[in-house]
Write the structure tokens for this entry.
Amino acid sequence: MKSKLRAVQPVLMVRDVPASIRFFASLGFEAVFKDSPTDPKYAGVARDGVELHLQWHDASEWSYPNDRPTYRFPVDHVDRLFDEFRGVPNLHHTDVRDTEWGTREFHVHDLDKNGLQFYQDL
């Protein structure tokens, strides 16, 4: 019998774990664990059964030019989620749009320029 994959928990590189926890809280995520209550270097946040891990990396790792990873989140109602996020101060996002590949989506960047794409199939 084969083992079954149940989920994926991406680990996002961040420069400031507490600031990233606050950022994701503004998107409706809750902190589920921290490796330290006062100065966490690794933490998890979750929303609607989706868990992301946040891992501290030194700022020097951002000194060379490269693209940050992008993570795609399938959602039930992308326009409702967009309306919810629109109220988040200083959140950098695209508009919601229909794509040529059959999705309706919008994109957000976190504090460390990790890409977050929220979409639904058309």
Summary: The first strand starts at residue 11 and ends at 14. The longest helix spans residues 17-26. The domain at 11-58+69-121 is CATH 3.10.180.10 (2,3-Dihydroxybiphenyl 1,2-Dioxygenase; domain 1).
